[in-house]
């Protein structure tokens, strides 16, 4: 599995900064020229087949005016293909990032959600979290959908009802795309979450990498990096369990003995990986 890129070698990088403009060139770019043209491009990408030397990328970047973005993403009309598949947007950079749905993304997000909710169940707090799959969270001039998110049903006074923990899954995109996601989510003026989990799925072998990012001294800091691999039907998990602070989900300290940090166990990490590999055919 590819190692994290240079800026994350030490597990730290600045939050904020450019959001979509600096995305890798492997993501195709188009000017938005109306709904018909958009749907033609979207459907071509949706139905494209991957072949050796021609790997499929599940994102498309469109450039259009600030006014057009505001019109296209009108909250009163979220039923369009563009609105439903808008991964991110930046009004200042005049860019919209579209995500092409994939089975791998779906399997990964569902598996992690099930593992987190199973870990919370013994605390009696199963009904105290809201799920935020693909909910658009808007900062000052840009917004983003997490692959999944979780937030307290009853947040403290002054705290918006939105995810405080998010998950981003990478299947076709490079690590630089994941880093852009982390920067958005941990930036106080944008996502302002407590924890950003990233899950990298290896396309060439049964291997996944889970990273646990939280803000520290104004920077994104990687607190954990877990790798799950399979060789000859033997599964290896490193640096488990995955630990997410209780306060990051519920925005309060534990108040009774059963309330504690959420731990995704060695076995649960096995299950997450196996569900993803099943979709991949490993």
Write the layout of secondary structure elements.
Blueprint: E1 12-14, E2 28-31, H1 35-46, E3 59-63, H2 66-72, H3 81-84, E4 86-90, E5 95-99, H4 103-120, E6 129-131, E7 137-138, E8 142-144, E9 148-152, E10 165-170, H5 175-186, E11 195-201, E12 207-216, E13 219-231, E14 234-237, E15 242-244, H6 246-250, E16 262-264, H7 266-280
Parallel strand pairs: 2-3, 10-11
Antiparallel strand pairs: 1-13, 3-5, 4-5, 4-8, 6-9, 7-8, 9-10, 11-12, 12-13, 13-14, 15-16
Helix pairs in contact: 4-7
Region (Disordered): 137-157
What does this structure look like?
The structure is a single chain. The chain is an alpha+beta fold and about 280 residues long. The two termini are about 15 Å apart. The chain has helices spanning about 35-45, 65-70, 80-85, 105-120, 175-185, 245-250, 265-280, and strands at about 10-15, 30, 60-65, 85-90, 95-100, 130, 135-140, 140-145, 150, 165-170, 195-200, 205-215, 220-230, 235, 240-245, 260-265. Helix content is about 25%, strand content about 30%. It folds into 2 domains: about 10-100, no CATH class; about 105-280, Alpha-Beta Complex (tt1808, chain A). Strands 1, 6, 9, 10, 11, 12, 13 and 14 form an 8-stranded mixed sheet that branches. Strands 2-3-5-4-8-7 form a 6-stranded mixed sheet. Strands 15-16 form a two-stranded antiparallel ribbon. Helix 4 runs antiparallel to helix 7 (about 265-280). The radius of gyration is 19 Å and the shape is globular. It has 7 helices and 16 strands.
Record field, number of beta strands? 16
Helix content: 25-40%
SSE-based structural type: alpha+beta
Give the amount of beta strand, in percent: 25-35%
- CATH hierarchy: architecture of the largest domain: Alpha-Beta Complex
**What's the structural domain tally?**
2
Which CATH class of the largest domain? Alpha Beta
The separation of the N and C termini measures 15 Å
Count of runs of 4 or more consecutive helical residues: 7
How would you state the average pLDDT, rounded? Answer: 89
- Compressed to H and E, one letter per element, the order equals EEHEHHEEHEEEEEHEEEEEHEH
């Amino acid at each position: 599995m590819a190692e994290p890129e240079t800026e994350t070698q030490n597990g730290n990088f600045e939050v904020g900064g450019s959001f979509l403009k600096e995305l890798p060139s492997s993501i195709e770019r188009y000017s938005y020229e109306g709904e018909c043209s958009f749907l033609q491009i979207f459907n071509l990408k949706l139905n494209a087949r991957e072949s050796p030397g021609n790997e499929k990328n599940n994102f498309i970047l469109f450039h259009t005016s600030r006014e057009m973005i505001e019109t296209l993403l009108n909250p009163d009309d979220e039923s369009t293909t563009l609105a439903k598949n808008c991964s991110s947007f930046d009004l200042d950079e005049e860019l919209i990032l579209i995500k092409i749905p994939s089975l791998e993304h779906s399997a990964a997000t569902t598996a992690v959600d099930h593992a987190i909710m199973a870990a919370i169940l013994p605390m009696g707090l199963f009904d105290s979290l809201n799920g935020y799959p693909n909910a658009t969270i808007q900062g000052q001039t840009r917004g983003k959908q997490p692959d999944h998110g979780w937030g307290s049903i009853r947040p403290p006074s002054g705290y918006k009802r939105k995810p405080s923990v998010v998950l981003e899954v990478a299947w076709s995109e490079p690590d630089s795309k994941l880093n852009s996601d982390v920067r958005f989510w941990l930036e106080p003026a944008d996502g302002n979450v407590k924890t950003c989990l990233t899950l990298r799925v290896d396309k060439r072998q049964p291997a996944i990498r889970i990273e646990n990012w939280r803000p520290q001294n104004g920077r994104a800091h990687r607190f954990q990096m877990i790798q799950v691999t399979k060789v000859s039907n033997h599964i290896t998990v490193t640096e488990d369990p995955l630990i997410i602070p209780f306060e990051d989900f519920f925005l309060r300290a534990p108040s009774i003995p059963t309330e504690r940090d959420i731990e995704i166990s060695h076995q649960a990490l096995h299950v997450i990986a196996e569900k993803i590999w099943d979709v991949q055919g490993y």
